[in-house]
Amino acid sequence: MVEEMDRxxxxxxxxxxxxxxxxxxxVSEGMLDRFGEKRVIDTPISENGFSGLGIGAxxxxxxxxxxxxxxxxxxxxxxxxxNNAAKIRYMSGGQFGVxxxxxxxxxxxxxxxxxxxxxxxxxxATIPGLKVVSxxxxxxxxxLLKTAIRDDDPVVFLESEVMYGMKGEVSDxxxxxxxxxxxxxxxxxxxxxxxxxxxxxxxxxxxxxELEKDGHSVEVIDPRTIRPFDIxxxxxxxxxxxxxxxxxxxxxxxxxxxxxxxxxxERAFDHLDAPVLRITSKDVPAPYAKNLMEYYMPQVQDxxxxxxxxxxxx
Amino acid sequence: xxxxxEMPKMSDTMEEGVLxxxxxxxxxxxxxxxxxxQVETDKATMDLESYDDGVLLKKxxxxxxxxxxxxxxxxLGKENEDISDILSxxxxxxxxxxxxxxxxxxxxxxxxxxxSSASAxxxxxxxxxxxVKSSPLARKLAAEHGLxxxxxRGSGPDGRIVKRDVVAAVGSGYQAQPAVAKQAPATPTxxxxxxxxxxxxxxxxxxxxxxxxxxxxxVRISQMRKTISRRLSESKFTAPHFYLTIDVDMxxxxxxxxxxxxxxxKQGGAKISFNDFVTKACALALRxxxxxxASYNEKDGVIAYHKQAHVAVAVAVDEGLLTxxxxxxxxxxxxxxxxxxxxxxxxxxxxxxxxxxxxGSTFTTSNLGxxxxxxxxxxxxxxxxxxxxxxxxxxxxxxxxxxxxxGTMMKVTLSCDHRVVxxxxxxxxxxxxRSFLENPATMLL
Lengths: 314, 445
Fold this sequence. Notes:
By secondary structure, chain A is α/β, with parallel strands linked by helices. Chain A has helices at about 1-5, 30-35, 45-60, 80-85, 90, 120-125, 140-150, 200-215, 230-240, 255-270, 290-295, 300-310, and strands at about 10-15, 40, 65, 100-105, 130-135, 155-160, 185, 190-195, 220, 225, 245-250, 275-280.
């Protein structure tokens, strides 16, 4: 964000506790000092208001970054996202664009109970006009966020509370841009394709490690972007492995995994040697109790079991 | 002690019955006379009554199965009684029990294999569901290698044939998949170039899609068709048929008929058809021609001369035909014959005809006049000696007293079993029939 704000003074950050407190998760640490209170703006608890303010600013030539303290709170402003940000370019016949990034942590983050544990990717990805990005590591987060900020249309940028502390190599390139809509084959394999985005990506890698010990070669694909989804990379992988398991923290019904599985059977039916399986959270609101939360969330063992099932091994 | 329930003989001609539906569940208490199932015989669907009381311990036969007479279909007894003895008895004795189901299995096998379409109701007897399960990839690989999946054993869940099974079946001839797959997307753009090079003959122009390659529909042969097939083949191949045709002047009968029908209309009687006159005439004529009212019984080495004239009338029904019998038709008035014929024909079409209504005929008539058929030959309905094929009544030029006139004529053809009836015998009988129809008043004598 800092690099982009240095580069383009139309960009500003707005949200709850982004300025004085340096961010609820310290994402914007030092930014108030660097850019001043005209470009790093604290708001009251008023998601609907400051989202609408951001959209208005974007329509008038600025390039706002709107931070939700968590995406659970974006539901208060969902009319702004779905009806205004997503549709104005279409409804104005292309006269007005909304170059805005809505960002913040998404998905489950431990014992936060039902209203603070929602995975919103399938909700926003269903809306034409919104791009939805979900990085799995620091380097991707940087490259994708810079691309999202430079995009002339609204981008929903989904981060993760539990990954904010993650350390990793990050490119120093001045214009380090990772294209939106391009997946990454994170690990090559021949026996089964595991598709997992965001936090689930790490679960997929662990499952792949375990399966490797038994001699099974797992290909792991990190989609990076939820919409537009890079189905071509997944299909190419399946023509090699013939089997696919999707890990998706969303609730199962009409989720990202449903859509991916649909597209796979449509495009790669003749390459499938087994049904496409998926690991999701359970089809209930997230529980609070620790043991129930573990049961609710996808686990490494679930992914291992699913992979074995599609490979027809015990 | 447990009691076996066997497939009963429900008609003279029945050899096997299809258990159409069970009307009681296993574990239900049964009293004598209770209807426990419905059975389709060659003639009708009939209620199967229990002769005994007890608890229905086991249904041995599935709905839709065809089993021969005497085959075990259920076991009655006391609750929790051991019935393994009965089951094993029927399995061993003459193979009637368990093997009884075999004909049905064989019958349905051809259409349950690849197509599987029409035989769905008979499916329960087939092992599992008889379907070859395979993954899409396995099917594609099998097609590429010309492998019949029915010959491959599946190692996946529920026997699903998966890639590794096909690879194993094909053996070393298998080529790694990715090479093929990656080429596939490229093909749409490439074919133009290579296609142009040799091609000495132009490919035929594409044909408009037509429904010319539809697969045949197969339908299980019904009990009625099986019976028609068996009995008429037996008749035609063993009884040496010969045929006598005669032209009957129906003017007098037509006049008589319009008079009696006018009366019937006034008094609310049954409407009398030409065929009712034919039935009556045939029955009366049988009295004076005992050789025609006879049966050749090779098994017992005798010819039976029947003392009653029971005339069967062929009735077309959806699946085939039935021959309900007008008993002692020679003694019955036209009104009675008309009423009985209408009633029995209705029951035949509703599949409600009971054995005593279609068995025991001594002579049969078959009438296709309503379809405009002028004359035809019929196959004798065993054990009858003759059958009369009745054609249409038509106005046609006739020579009467040296003058051309318009006649109301009807051709009838008698098929005779030469083992019983000789040419002159048959001809004499036909002459009597004609005489009755040309002088209907003589039928009153």
